[in-house]
Design a protein that fits this description.
alpha+beta; single chain
C-alpha cells in the first residue's frame, strides 16, 4: 500500500494564497473572502477530540503569521512563523467565529519563568498527519507533538547542561488580538504531587476539565499574574468569578531535576464531565513510548486516507488530493462520552458551521464513514431534543444561536443524506419527530404563515428542510403530512424573480443574489422553467461564470473598499473562495450541459489549488473547501439532501473508493490535461447516457467507467438528473 502520509501535507493552506496564474474563465472569477486557507499543521487524529499545535496567537487558528482579515491578501502580524508555546483544540480553516479554542498553553523553558510569553522563531518545522515538530528559536529546545484519540502528548528535548522547566498557562484561550481572547470566568486548579496539575476552567460558558502530567522527576508550583509570581507552598488556586478587569493569567510550572535527563514527555487530557475523566484521557497513553503513540495516530490516518486510492495524475495532483482529504477529515471532533448533558451516546462538536460543511464535507463523511455519519445525526438529534431546535453551529461554547444570519434548518439536509444512504443506527421515527418539532419552532412561524422570510436564503433553507422532512414522512407512511410539507417545499418560488429567473433583491450573507441563484434545489426542473428556455438558463450561467469576459484583478489590499465593491458588482462566481456558490458549476448538468460543468470544474482544479501553504483559494471552513476539491477531483459531486451524485470531470485515471463497506471503482480512459469531456459512460458494464448516479447505485458498489475526450460530446445532454417537485 502506498504511504499516503507522505502525500498529505498538514501545512497545506495555512498561508496566503500562492496559486497558478488563472487562465480562461478562471481568470474572471472574483474572490470575496480572504485569500488564505486558514488551516493549521497541528497533530491530531481523524475527527480527533484533541489537537496540538504551535501557538503564535495569529488569526484565526492561533498558528501562523496573519493579522485579522476578511478579504484581500491577509496582512501579516509576524514576518515568519513564531510560537510562545503549544496549545490545544484548534479550529480548522474557519473565519471569525468568536471562539478560537487554543486552550492550555504548554511552554518548555530554559531559564527564568519571565520568558513565558516570548515568541520564538520556529526553526526546522516538520509535520505529517499525527505529528508536528519545531525548534524554538535559539533555545535549542526541540518540540514534538502527537495525539491519541483523547489526549495530546508533547515531547521536549532540551540542550545538554540546561535546567529545563515546563510552564503551563491554564488561563490561555483564543487568539492574541483585542477582543479575540477567550478569558476564563471561573476556575479551580490543584497540583497533584510533583508532576501534575488538574482542575477546571470555565471558558466561553463551558466548564473544561484539564489534567496535565509531566514525565520524570520534577518539582511543581503554581504561578499567578503577568509577572508569573511563584505561589510558594500553595497547592491550589480557585476563582469563583473572573471579570475582564480582574483577570490575571495563572498556571503551573514544573522544574525538572538533573536526573530527568534532556527528554521530557507531557500528557494533556481534557473532559467536559470531570477531572477524573480528563485524567483517564491523559493517562491513556501511559507506558506507551512517544513513537508508539505517533505510530498509532499515523496508522489511523493511513487507514482513513486509504479509503480513497487514486491512480494516475501528476505527483502534484496527488499531493493536493491527499492534503485536501487530510484537512477534510479533521472535523467535526468526536467527544463521545463527554457530553455534560447526557450519558454515553455520541457527542460530536466543531460544526463551525453547518453552512460551511453541509454541501461537501458532511456528504463525504456520510458516504465513506457511515458510522461517523450515524453519530453526527444522533448528536444533532440529542441537541435538538434538549434545546427545542437544531443548531446551525455547535462548538465548545454556550452560544446556542450562533451564525443565525448564515443559514437555518441545515440539519434536515444532513439527516436526509444519512437517510438516503440507509445508514444504520438511527431511529428514523425519532429523527422525523425531531425534524417536525424543529420546523414548528416559533422562529419559523413566518415562513409557514407567509411563504417566505428574510433573508431570501432562509426561505430556500426552510423550503428544502420541508422537502427533506417530507421524504422521511413518506417513508414512514405519513402520506398526508408529506403532501403538506411538499406544498411548503414549493415556497422556494416565492423568492425568485420571474422576470429575471434569479433570486429577488434582499440581504445576502457573503455574496449577492447571483451567488445564491444557482443553488441546487430539489426542483431544478421548475427552477430552470423560470426562464423562457433551457438555453436562456445556460446563458445566465455563462454570464455568472464569466464566459467571454475579461480577466478580473483580485483586490489584494484589505482596505481597498472601492475595488471590493467593483468586484462584487460583477455578480460573478466566487471561484471556490467561499461557500454560497460552491456547487453552482453542476447546475449546468440539469440543463443538459455537462460539458460546461467539466470546463468550469477543470478550470478550478487547475487554477484555484496547488501544493504548500498557499495552496487553497479561501477559508477551508472545517473541511468544506477541501472536501469540494476531493469530490471534484474524483468526478462525482453529491447533491446534499438528495439521493443523487452528479458526474463531473475526474482529474485522475481512476479511483478505488471504499464506500461504506463496499468498493466502488472509477475507471477513466483517455484522461489528462485538455481531455475534460466525458464521451461515454458505463456502470457495471452497462452503458449509461445520464450525467448522474443514484446514491443507491454508488452505495451498492461496482465500477463506473468513463471515456474522456478533447471535445464536448452528446453524452449526458438528453437525460436530466431527477427533480423532486412532488417529493
Amino acid at each position: 500500500m502506498t504511504d499516503l502520509l507522505e502525500l498529505a501535507d498538514p501545512f497545506f493552506g495555512n498561508g496566503a494564497i500562492d496559486l497558478p496564474t488563472p487562465e480562461g474563465i478562471a481568470a474572471t472569477w472574483f474572490f470575496i473572502k480572504a485569500q488564505t486557507g486558514n488551516t493549521h499543521p497541528g497533530a491530531t487524529t481523524p475527527f480527533g477530540m484533541v489537537s496540538a499545535c504551535a501557538y503564535s496567537g495569529a488569526y484565526p487558528t492561533g498558528y501562523g503569521v496573519n493579522a485579522p482579515n476578511t478579504h484581500g491578501t491577509p496582512a501579516r502580524r509576524f514576518d515568519r512563523p513564531v510560537a510562545s508555546g503549544f496549545t490545544h483544540l484548534q479550529q480548522s480553516g474557519t473565519g471569525m467565529i468568536d471562539t478560537y479554542y487554543n486552550y492550555v498553553r504548554v511552554t518548555p523553558l530554559v531559564g527564568d519563568l519571565g520568558q513565558l510569553g516570548t515568541r520564538w522563531p520556529l526553526h526546522d518545522e516538520v509535520a505529517s498527519p499525527g505529528y508536528y515538530a519545531a525548534t524554538l528559536g535559539d533555545t535549542g529546545i526541540r518540540a514534538e507533538l502527537t495525539a491519541s484519540l483523547r489526549s495530546a502528548v508533547h515531547r521536549y528535548t532540551f540542550p545538554g547542561g540546561s535546567a529545563p522547566r515546563i510552564a503551563v498557562d491554564l488561563s490561555a484561550g483564543g487568539i492574541d488580538f483585542p477582543g479575540m481572547r477567550t478569558l476564563p470566568t471561573a476556575s479551580d486548579i490543584v497540583l497533584v504531587g510533583s508532576r501534575a496539575v488538574q482542575g477546571w476552567i470555565a471558558l466561553a460558558g463551558v466548564r473544561l476539565y484539564v489534567y496535565v502530567e509531566v514525565g520524570g522527576p520534577a518539582s511543581s508550583a503554581l504561578w499567578l499574574g503577568d509577572g508569573h509570581e511563584i505561589l510558594g507552598g500553595q497547592r491550589s488556586l480557585a476563582f469563583d468569578a473572573i471579570t475582564p478587569d480582574s483577570f490575571e493569567p495563572f498556571g503551573a510550572v514544573f522544574d525538572l531535576t538533573p536526573t530527568a535527563g534532556s527528554v521530557t514527555l507531557v500528557r494533556v487530557g481534557f473532559s467536559l464531565r470531570s477531572v477524573s475523566q480528563a485524567q483517564r484521557n491523559a493517562q491513556g497513553t501511559l507506558r506507551r513510548p512517544f513513537e508508539a503513540i505517533t505510530e498509532r495516530a499515523q496508522g489511523l490516518w493511513q487507514n482513513s486516507l486509504a479509503r480513497f486510492e487514486v491512480h494516475g495524475g501528476s505527483q502534484e495532483q496527488r499531493r493536493i488530493f491527499y492534503s485536501a482529504l487530510y484537512h477534510s477529515l479533521q472535523k467535526p471532533s468526536n467527544w463521545e462520552g463527554e457530553s455534560p448533558d447526557w450519558d454515553g451516546a455520541p457527542y460530536y462538536v466543531d460544526f463551525a458551521t453547518l453552512w460551511d460543511q453541509y454541501k461537501t464535507q458532511i456528504p463525504l463523511l456520510m458516504t465513506f464513514f457511515p458510522g461517523r455519519g450515524c453519530d453526527v445525526v444522533n448528536t444533532l438529534l440529542s441537541l435538538a431534543e434538549r434545546w427545542g431546535h437544531f443548531p446551525n453551529a455547535f462548538l465548545l461554547d454556550a452560544d446556542r444561536e450562533r451564525c443565525e444570519g448564515q443559514a437555518t434548518a441545515l440539519a434536515h439536509t444532513v439527516i436526509a443524506d444519512a437517510f438516503h444512504r440507509r445508514i444504520d443506527g438511527i431511529d428514523w421515527l425519532r429523527a422525523y419527530s425531531v425534524m417536525e418539532a424543529d420546523l414548528a419552532h416559533p422562529r419559523n412561524r413566518a415562513f409557514f404563515e407567509t411563504g417566505k422570510v428574510e433573508p431570501p436564503t432562509h426561505t430556500l433553507d426552510l423550503a428544502y428542510a420541508c422537502f427533506c422532512t417530507a421524504r422521511l414522512a413518506r417513508a414512514l407512511g405519513r402520506h398526508t403530512r408529506a403532501a403538506t410539507l411538499l406544498e411548503n417545499a414549493a415556497n422556494w418560488r416565492s423568492v425568485y424573480d420571474r422576470a429575471t429567473g434569479r433570486l429577488v433583491e434582499g440581504r445576502y450573507y457573503e455574496g449577492g443574489l447571483w451567488n445564491y441563484s444557482f443553488r441546487l434545489l430539489h426542483d431544478m426542473a421548475g427552477r430552470i422553467a423560470l426562464y423562457p428556455t433551457e438555453q436562456a438558463f445556460v446563458a445566465d450561467l455563462d454570464r455568472f461564470f464569466g464566459y467571454g469576459q475579461p480577466p478580473v484583478v483580485q483586490p489584494t489590499d484589505p482596505d481597498d473598499r472601492e475595488a471590493m465593491a467593483a468586484g462584487l458588482a460583477l455578480n460573478r462566481f466566487e471561484g471556490f473562495n467561499n461557500e454560497p456558490d460552491i456547487e453552482a458549476p453542476y447546475a449546468y448538468v440539469y440543463a443538459g450541459r455537462p460539458d460546461r460543468t467539466a470546463e468550469v470544474v477543470r478550470a478550478g482544479m487547475r487554477s484555484m489549488f496547488t501544493t504548500g501553504r498557499g495552496g487553497l483559494p479561501g477559508n477551508n471552513d472545517s473541511g468544506g473547501l477541501t472536501s469540494c476539491y476531493v469530490w471534484n477531483a474524483l468526478g462525482l459531486f453529491p447533491v446534499a439532501g438528495q439521493p443523487v451524485f452528479l458526474i463531473g470531470s475526474p482529474i485522475f485515471d481512476g479511483a478505488d473508493l471504499h464506500v461504506g463497506e463496499k468498493p466502488f471503482t472509477i475507471a477513466v480512459e483517455d484522461n489528462g490535461e485538455g481531455m475534460p469531456y466525458v464521451q461515454s459512460a458505463a456502470l457495471n458494464g452497462h452503458p449509461i447516457e445520464r450525467a448522474y448516479l443514484t446514491v443507491e447505485e454508488v452505495m451498492a458498489g461496482g465500477t463506473l467507467r468513463l471515456k474522456m475526450g478533447r471535445e464536448p460530446s452528446p453524452w449526458g445532454r438528453a437525460h436530466r438528473p431527477p427533480s423532486y417537485p412532488g417529493g
